[in-house]
Each structure stands twice: as structure tokens, then as C-alpha cells.
Specification:
Layout (H helix, E strand, L loop, with lengths): L1 E4 L5 E7 L2 E9 L5 E7 L2 E9 L5 E7 L2 E9 L7
Antiparallel strand pairs: 1-2, 2-3, 3-4, 4-5, 5-6, 6-7
Length: about 80
Amino acid sequence: MGVLKYVTGAKYEGMWIRDKANFRGVMMYTNKDKYDGEWLDGLRHGKGVYLYEDGSKYDGEWLNDEKNGIGVFLHSNGDKY
């Protein structure tokens, strides 16, 4: 476990292997977005929740830092995909 604060203001708190985010962790981005989920070699990979600054949310699967597989996107206006 560890915390890395980037010069941009972003912050990652979670597990590390070979100086890369792995397993479980939380990334707080400078634009106030937040990802809480699984990581593999520094990329969002596995199950995770991405909360957008506007209140929208994606809860689902990730592959190589991209939304992939089963997931639900809930827009801030209530629309659900």
C-alpha cells in the first residue's frame, strides 16, 4: 500500500508492484473525477467505479484503461445505459 501525489495534483492510493498501480486502488484526478477499482500495470483493469465531476458514474468492467465488458453508465440527469 502506498500513496503517490502527482505534480499535476492527482493522487493514487493503493497497491503497487514494480512501481505501477496493481490490484486495488483509488485515483483522484485533478478535474475532481475519481476511479475506485482494480488496476493492472498502471492501467484501470478489472472491476471498478468511475465517478465523474458532474455526478455521472460508470460501474463496470475495464480492460487496458478502457471501459469494456459488462457495465452501467448512469448520467447525472438520470439516464442509464
